[in-house]
């Protein structure tokens, strides 16, 4: 199977599940629902569900449909993080996934609430899942809450904000590099780690948990370095966002090391990631697709 087909199928079942879940949910305010579904249906790449599904199918040879609630939860948290990331108080962006940002359409208050709704509902969709066993749901929620919360993505976003507009001298470079690695590790890699870790736990084959966790860390770092590069050289139309790092004086791999070195660093993370899964045994076709997906993370143009 081609990777594109695999991602398309992953996208299809995740989007269907989130829409069905929100449309069936009782007591949801209509405007809030519209705002949540606006960002969900704006069409992201759905890379995180694809990583979760491939990890699961690689190890278990069961169908990804069994864990769609967990994949939906990851994408809901990711989408919430983007809605909040775009707010004027954060990156102040007008364009996301090729459409006006959530707050541009629904206002800042409703955008904050849409994020709150998606974050909280992510834990509801997974904990109320009838397809995933009780003990496995509990483990998935534990991983997801740890990686998304204050030990994870939220602290990455916090340091990202705190590092804006800082001027640093050449002598400070190694200290700043540590700060930047913390930001990337947490704001971006943690959610990709959660995707692979949950895929592994749900497959009930935890033998490779550490390999997959390290794989996802390196993929996450490669992903964010590439995001920083695309912010400078990417085609804004393809990206569906306008590129605000310079305006916000963000600390990025490009500002710290320049474009060429940043590209090399992304490739180095990819090489490390591929080594992390070298010894992994499972479905051969899925392993091939997982490697191709890893490659896409640094070779993408959107
Ligand atoms: C953007 O993530 C935010 C980062 C963590 C860099 P994606 O590039 O995966 O965004 P979508 O989901 O495809 O819109
Ligand atoms: C955002 O990083 C990471 C999260 C939303 C957690 P960026 O601010 O670089 O993402 P983009 O470039 O706006 O997508
Ligand atoms: Mg940001
Ligand atoms: Mg941003
Ligand atoms: Mg960015």
What's the layout of helices and strands?
Elements: H1 3-24, H2 30-40, H3 47-60, H4 68-85, E1 95-96, E2 99-100, H5 102-106, H6 108-127, H7 134-148, H8 153-162, H9 173-202, H10 209-233, H11 236-239, H12 253-257, H13 259-276, H14 284-299
The structure holds 3-methylbut-3-enyl trihydrogen diphosphate (IPE) (2 copies) and magnesium ion (3 copies).
Please provide a brief summary of the model:
With 302 residues, the chain is mostly helical. The chain is built from 14 helices and two strands. β1 (95-96) and β2 form a beta hairpin.
What would the keywords be for this entry?
single chain; 302 residues; mainly alpha; Farnesyl Diphosphate Synthase; two-stranded antiparallel ribbon; 14 helices; 1% strand; globular; binds 3-methylbut-3-enyl trihydrogen diphosphate; binds magnesium ion
Query: Major sheet: order of its strands?
Result: 1-2
Regions with pLDDT < 50 over 5+ consecutive residues?
Answer: none
Approximate helicity band: over 70%
Q: How confident is the prediction overall: mean pLDDT?
A: 97
């Amino acid at each position: 199977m081609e990777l594109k087909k695999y991602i398309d199928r992953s996208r299809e079942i995740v989007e269907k599940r989130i829409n069905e879940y929100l449309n069936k949910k009782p007591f949801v305010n209509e405007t809030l629902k519209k705002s949540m579904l606006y960002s969900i249906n704006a069409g992201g790449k759905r890379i995180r569900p694809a990583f979760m599904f491939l990890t699961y199918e690689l190890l278990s040879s069961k169908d990804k449909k069994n864990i769609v609630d967990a994949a939906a939860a990851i994408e809901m948290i990711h989408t919430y993080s983007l809605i909040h990331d775009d707010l004027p108080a954060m990156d102040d962006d007008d364009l996301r996934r090729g459409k006006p940002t959530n707050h541009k359409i629904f206002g800042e208050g409703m955008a904050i609430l849409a994020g709150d709704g998606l974050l909280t509902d992510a834990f509801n969709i997974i904990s109320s899942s009838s397809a995933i066993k009780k003990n496995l749901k509990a483990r998935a929620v534990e991983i997801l809450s740890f990686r998304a919360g204050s030990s994870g993505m939220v602290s990455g976003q916090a340091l990202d904000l705190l590092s804006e507009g800082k001027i640093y001298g050449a002598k400070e470079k190694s200290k700043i590099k540590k700060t930047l690695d913390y930001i990337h590790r947490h704001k971006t890699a943690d959610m990709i780690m959660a995707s692979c870790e949950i895929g592994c736990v749900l497959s009930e084959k935890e033998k490779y948990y550490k390999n997959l966790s390290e794989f996802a860390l390196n993929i996450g770092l490669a992903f964010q370095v590439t995001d920083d590069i695309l912010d400078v050289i990417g085609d804004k139309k393809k990206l569906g966002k306008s590129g605000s790092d310079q305006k916000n004086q963000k600390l990025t791999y490009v500002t710290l090391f320049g474009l060429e070195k940043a590209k090399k660093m992304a490739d180095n993370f990819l090489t490390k990631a591929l080594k992390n899964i070298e010894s992994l045994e499972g479905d051969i076709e899925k392993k091939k697709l997982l490697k191709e997906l890893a490659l896409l993370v640094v070779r993408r143009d959107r």
